[in-house]
Amino acid sequence: MRGQDKYLEQLGRVPLFAACSQKDLRSIARAGDEIRVPAGQTLCEEGRAGREFFLILDGKASVRRGNSKKSVATLGPGQYFGEMALLDRGPRSATVVADTDMNLLVLGQREFHGVVDEVPTLAHKLLATMAGRLREADQRSTTH
Hints:
Elements: H1 8-12, H2 22-31, E1 33-37, E2 42-44, E3 52-58, E4 61-64, E5 73-75, E6 80-81, E7 95-98, E8 102-108, H3 109-118, H4 120-143
Antiparallel strand pairs: 1-8, 2-7, 3-6, 3-8, 4-5, 4-7
Helix pairs in contact: 3-4
């Protein structure tokens, strides 16, 4: 696979991008940057405004909530976090720290908005996906 084409399958598994075509996913991948971070680096901090989405290509990270140093989840290759930051600058719901050296595909909000402006049909797909997720959340909240 050439360039960012290797990320397409992983990006396609992100619920936010589930309705995207291969062409859409290529545009999204091109807008991102592959970065390497050392073990111990904080990737995002709970309560702070989010501005980017992270797709883990290699390595592992811990998810922490509250003031706890204890991990509530471990993320690895193919997993992701921060997708809601692409849509708003709301506060992060958790702190994520690299447990090992990591390779990540990072997509910033500004770059993502550029892709949406460049491919207007992408906005319709994203809205449909978000509406579906809201319906599911609403159904879960009324059945519990």
